[in-house]
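Researcher: Good morning. I'm working through a list of sequences from a screen, and I'd like to move beyond sequence-only analysis. For each chain I'm collecting a predicted structure so we can compare shapes side by side. This is the next one on the list. No need for commentary yet; just the structure.
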Amino acid sequence: MPVFPKISLRPEVEKYLKDGFMNKEVVNTLGKAAAERKFETLLKHLSHPPSFTTVRVNTHLTSVQHVKTLLLDEFQKFNGLSVPVLQHPDLEDVLLIPVIGPRKNIKKQQCEAVVGAQCGNAVLRGAHVYVPGIVSASSFMKAGDVISVYSDIKGKCKKGAREFDGTKVFLGNGISARSRKEIFSGLCELKGIGIRMTEPIYLSPSFDNVLPGYLFLQNLPSAVVAHVLHPQPGERVLDLCAAPGGKATHIAALMHDQGEVIALDKIPNKVEKIKQNALLLGLNSIKAFCFDGTKAHKHDMTEDTQEGPPFSPESFDRILLDAPCSGMGQRPNMACTWTLKEVMSYQPLQRKLFSVAAQLLKPGGMLVYSTCTITLAENEEQVAWALSTFPCLQLQPQEPRIGEEGMMGAGLSLEQLRQLQRFDPSAVPLQDPDQDALRDATAEDMIRLANKDCIGFFIAKFLKWKSTSEKDPQK
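Model: Good morning. Structure tokens for this chain:
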């Protein structure tokens, strides 16, 4: 039984998603009842966190085995938590840590604090509560009090309220590091931990300042992307929408920091975050620029006089387009307040970025397109559009192969669907693991579960088999 209700969506958004997941091709193959059950299961899974925390090791500075040993030592400090740390057999730089929960025997306290939805999502994945995330607190809350923490999943609680009777979800108990008076006095902007979670409903170690130069928290499918791109030392690689730099730093590490990784983002503070992550991880091959990716293609063929954007046509060996998207695959996500117009606004932007990527890729080069969403329009429909718009591109098989094949409904052939990777959170039942169950599970079973019970994600890989400027002889 799910411990949380299914994700709350605007009716028109839920209908839009349902129409995509119950298109004619899917219904004809699965049957209407099975297709509907699968969609409802997906909505329930999206409100729950994945069963594993995924950590990518920075192999540029250390070994996977060394980090594994250090993590086991760290976990002993975290309430004596005894869980295995597994190395992924197909992603040699990825470690998997099981999440225990949901725990159903936690006693709720009289003293309460309510946090915003984003803060609540982070708590469910092992974070403590930072002061800016606290929306309300009981009038008698003092530093050192044991308090129950709730998430205001619909954003209805007023800042500074003393109580809240709206829709809220229990996240567990913690110890307040600040009094209510300190938090809401308004005398100064407080930062740092406001509530240290001691009995979270999902037990997952906090990674606050844990081995910061050695590891990077990353969802499993996000770690797959750079391996699928398969960058080589000495190449010139473009990460077109790079913030906060998780995939760009992964690409640089896989290249042994030899070559050039260009990372673009159009928001200045996000570009600074890319630079900070590159510095922290000891990677010198990354050059980050504040630039709009839709304008990164220099249309004239004049010789480059600067190292930054815009770039000459066909000047990159490999390109990653981890596109801005509706983010409907992120977990946990108990409520999405977006309008249908907002959800549908990403497809045109993704096509602009894809067109730039196709122009900047060298003949013989590889382009990987990915999103962290589940919509047909942003995934398989984009692949169908790309293949018809750019005859110079061909779909390629992907290694490693961890996700399922693509979803029907966009007019792609079965062979083309098999070359895609769609990570579907509804692929396995919701889990309810405890430490005893973990002791009985085999490593193979846990790896299999980690591969399935992750966020919703999509990956497509293309080869540019001829120059963009060449005419198709069949036309």
